[in-house]
Specification:
two-stranded antiparallel ribbon, Arc Repressor Mutant, subunit A
Length: 186
């Protein structure tokens, strides 16, 4: 059985970024795609959630976003930018557990303050390099191919894979492929 995206046939909400411009974020609800700020009901949900997370709003200010409209769009973009099968809003409540591979990872001045880290196992956080290795392992690349692509030794790849296994509790690459798919890294 196939799982449909949130909002396609129900009133839950899926947020996602424009693939050509990550500064633009859309919502999908009740079968309708709208840009953030076009739906008063969604604006109210976002505003209520931002009120409960002033540290995230402060991060938006640090990034130079000033208007409430810009705050809403960037808040959803940073926290829920991937079009995936995880519901971002259910019955009017945000689900704060989404990680998405933002193109600014590793260079964003507010990384981790606004966006979510990639957590595995019992809440253990993967490093940026471990995420890169997991993504490539998820594409069934060989260790030597991963090493070449990242400009590191094959032994370093094996160490990263070991750390991923330790943090996630996974035992083999087949399980890592599944994890990479579940975490939207492919």
């Amino acid at each position: 059985m196939y799982k449909l995206p949130a909002g396609l046939l129900d009133n839950d909400i899926e947020f996602f970024n424009d693939p050509h411009n990550p500064e633009v974020c859309y919502s999908l609800t009740s079968g309708r795609v709208q840009r953030i700020n076009e739906n008063p009901y969604i604006n109210t949900i976002i505003d209520n959630d931002m009120a409960h997370h002033p540290e995230k709003v402060e991060a938006l200010v640090q990034l130079g976003y000033e208007s409430v409209e810009a705050h809403r769009e960037k808040y959803c973009s940073c926290c829920f930018g991937a079009f995936d099968l995880e519901r971002d809003v259910v019955a009017g409540d945000f689900k704060h557990n989404e990680y998405w591979p933002c193109p600014k990872r590793g260079s964003c001045p507010v990384e981790g303050k606004l966006c979510n880290a990639l957590k595995v196992g019992e809440g253990k956080i993967l490093s940026k390099r471990e995420i890169e290795v997991l993504s490539m392992a998820g594409k069934c690349m060989l260790d030597k191919e991963i090493a070449s692509a990242l400009g590191i030794s094959e032994e370093t790849v094996k160490i990263h894979l070991k750390h991923i296994r330790e943090k996630s509790g996974l035992m083999n690459k087949k399980d890592m492929v599944l994890l990479a798919h579940q975490k939207n890294l492919l």
